[in-house]
Amino acid sequence: MKDWTRRGFFLGAGTATLGACSTGTGSTERFKIDRRTQEALRDMRGKLPFTADLEQKAAGMLVMPVVGKAGLIYGGSYGEGSLLIGGAPVDYYSVASASFGLQIGVQKLSTVLFFMSHDRLAKFRSRNGWTIGADLEYTLIDSAENAAVDSNTYKDEVYGVVFGQKGLHAGVTLEGSKYSRIIR
């Protein structure tokens, strides 16, 4: 009877150890997203100082630190990031899009969606699979030269900021991008 108990103990301990290893893989991805998110925010603050005001007033921010885009007639993009509330990550999301048309190029970029109202943030979090342009109206800010956020434009509920573009791909848009919650 003692042999069975010892075998059961070692079998259980081995299973728990393997289970802990598999859980660690997901958390490694989560930590990688968190690190990239903080790097992207530092980059955004350095290049686009006006976003500090948006950041202070936002109910939440969805940060996609690296979104890869590629296209040769058919195109697509994909990235993973985190939803920050009060500066802390609360959920993880992926963004994906597909397109067809006259296009060519490869590009990496970063995006941040600023949710300016708690109501809009709650609606975003309550839906699984959320598409820009179909599920909400937003204001896109794609260059610091065009940025003019003041008391007249603060009535918008969501701002999309694009920055850190590397590579060459014609056009910048968030339209049609689908955001989905992921487990990390």
End-to-end Cα distance = 42 Å
Determine the mean pLDDT: 77
Measured on Cα atoms, how large is the radius of gyration? 20 Å
Question: How much helical structure, as a percent, in the residues?
Answer: 25-40%
Largest sheet: 6 strands, mixed
Shape annotation: globular
Counted beta strands: 6
Strand proportion, as a percent range, falls in 35-45%
Task: List the main descriptive attributes of the protein structure presented here.
34% helix; 6-stranded mixed β-sheet
Write structural notes for this entry.
The structure is a single chain. By secondary structure, the chain is an alpha+beta fold. The protein has one domain (42-182). The chain contains three helices and six strands; from the N terminus they run H-H-E-E-H-E-E-E-E. The protein has helices at residues 2-47, 51-57, 118-126, and strands spanning 60-85, 88-115, 130-131, 139-141, 158-169, 178-182. Strands 1, 2, 3, 4, 5 and 6 form a six-stranded mixed β-sheet that branches. The longest helix has 46 residues, at 2-47. The chain starts with a helix and ends with a strand. Residues 97-179 form the Ysc84 actin-binding domain. It comes from Paramylibacter kogurei. This is Ysc84 actin-binding domain-containing protein.
